[in-house]
Amino acid sequence: VSTQSTGVEGDCGMELEAVTPTQLLAHGTPESCWVVIDQRVFDVTGFLHLHPGGAHTLLGYGGRDGSRAFHAVHSERTLQENKHLLKLVGKFESDAPHQPEPPAQESDAMTGCLNLDDLEELAERRMAPSQFAYFSSGANDEHTMRSNTAGFRCYWLVPRVMRDVSEVSIATRLLGCELSIPLFISAAAKAGFAHPTGECGLAEGAAQAGIVQMCPMLGSKTREQMVDTRSFPIEWFRINHFNGDVTRITVSQCHDHSQPVSWRGQPVS
């Protein structure tokens, strides 16, 4: 690693040494895997077999910058929680000029969307293929997903005439929760794929609409960040069961009344 000073300090207060692109490219194998996250170079070799998504996921970014992919999936504190498994090598120094992301273009495309099919088509045009595939696909052979779609199309609006419409409300209750409209946001991990605000953006939208959001266990934002976004409590938190210890800890945290929020429902999958 180059001894050139970077002006960036590590956790112990010492300056990080510079890592050049050539040096980084030499570490993209299972024997030595370095990944750049926010200009910091991490040696993740010892973490490959522990990564929940499999070693191939990390190896795909070996010797490369994985910042965008990391933040689309993980919360900001993931590195802090796993720092005992990662080795901070240095600060990435690239000769290429920094290319800022282009500003988002305002568009009225949403106003032309009449149904979910229109929204899905718009999302496909705006998202990367791999990210869109994650949200638009289902498990295994997708029989359940297709059956649900077909079943929903069997519902028809029954017209009524000569009715008093001076006071109309579509508010309802779902499992004891008040909804302003008969919709809720189901849990789906990796909301950061669709937008940098991730689950916090969904939480803000749900709060404004007055509906329930089921927050995912594997979100790109933390539970605390999701809760802080809303002006009223999030009712449900989905728990993915991996092993008994993790599930017990997560359930106890959800029911810890010393925390800012306790969840009314914890669906388990």
Explain this structure.
It is built from ten helices and eleven strands. It has 269 residues and is an alpha/beta fold. β1 and β2 (15-19) form a beta hairpin. α8 runs parallel beside α9 (223-229). Residues 1-9 and 98-104 have low confidence and may be disordered.
Please provide a brief summary of the model.
Helices cover 30% and strands 16% of the residues.
How are the SSEs placed, and which strands pair?
Layout: E1 2-9, E2 15-19, H1 21-25, E3 28-29, E4 32-37, E5 40-43, H2 55-59, E6 64-65, H3 67-73, H4 78-81, E7 87-92, H5 116-126, H6 129-136, H7 143-152, E8 172-174, E9 177-179, H8 198-209, E10 214-215, H9 223-229, E11 236-237, H10 244-254
Parallel strand pairs: 2-7, 4-6, 10-11
Antiparallel strand pairs: 1-2, 3-4, 4-5, 5-7, 8-9
Helix pairs in contact: 8-9
Computed structural class: alpha/beta
Mean pLDDT level? 79
Beta-strand percentage range:
15-25%
Number of helices: 10
Cα-to-Cα separation, first versus last residue = 45 Å
Unreliable stretches (pLDDT < 50, length at least 5) are: 1-9, 98-104
Sketch the major β-sheet: 7 strands, mixed
* Rg value: 23 Å
Spell out the helices and strands N to C. Answer: EEHEEEHEHHEHHHEEHEHEH
Shape: elongated
Please count the beta strands (DSSP E, at least 2 residues each).
11
How much helix, percentage-wise, in residues? Answer: 25-40%
